Amino acid sequence: MPTPKPARKPLLRLPSTKRGRRILLGAGAGVVAVALIVGGVVVFSGGGGYDGGTGNAGEAVTAYLEALQRGDAKTALSLGRDQPPDTSMLTDEILKKQMEKFPITDVKILGDIPTTNGGAMVHVIAKVGGVDSDERIVLDKPPPGQGWKLDSAAMSVEFKIDDMNPDLAKSITVWDKPVPKSGKAYVFPGLVEMGSSNPALEVDNSPAVGNADPTLYEISTMSRVVYPDIKVSDDGRQIVRDELKKALEKCAESTSLEPPKCPNKAARSDFVPDSAKWTAPSDLDAVTINFMDEKTGKVMIIGNAEFGISVRTESGSTETGTFLASVFGNADMTENPPVIDFDRA
Description:
The protein is an alpha+beta fold. The chain has helices at 57-69, 73-78, 92-101, 166-169, 217-221, 234-252; strands spanning 22-23, 34-38, 41-45, 80-82, 104-114, 120-128, 131-139, 150-152, 155-159, 172-174, 177-178, 184-187, 194-196, 201-205, 223-226, 228-232, 277-279, 287-293, 298-312, 318-332, 339-342.
């Protein structure tokens, strides 16, 4: 009787899809492209992206979080059903910067629950920036012949700038890129780093809204509203002071007793008109640079500054002294450098 042939070993062992498996994102292991046939759908996983989707909703969420953590923008985008109209901020470079500040680690799928419309709700926990995050992410039913994907792989960020001076709004940047004219930018979920192309300004989220750190919630909604709060930066304050000093020096060049649009005035009836010799203030410590008006793009300047003055009198004598001027005006921060304008009290 012939000896029976040993059973043929499977050519490939597929990874387990048991729920609750824990993964560490950003591992340095090599990626092998694997073709799975799930219900007649060819699903590709690995370095080539997931154009065909994944075998189940939990795998789609896991693969997406893995792609985010390793800074793989192309793969992350391939896991979204709807593609964003603008991908200029959806790059490996920006994504890696997001993950450097708020890495996604210790991901665990706790449940993959079918919904009544044929979709699924994935219960996932992870650490985002080292802080525990717990969220349920809903995925729609895949179209016929396709695998599972998130509804969108990019987060839309709407900037509320309608009431802001247009020239001021133009200076706002997101990841060093101008805010699109539409007022909406598309980035991956996570940190949204705002700034300004104007070195005199700094931009943050409005204190009324707060600066909550990223969580998995952003992945469940894929949307965020930002209310930019623009302030004068430390460099900007010095720039304003420098321009204020120049403006006061310009005022001191006048021989008028009351130079137009200037804070210095010597209104005494016995002074000879146009005989003043002004000396600009050397100390501006008593002048403060206050609040930014985002509607006008101007910042208030208020305080006192001491001018020196020498002036002839009608009796023929010359009087010399100091004049404490009330400095009240503003700096137009939409201009570079800022333009100083004095308002008479």
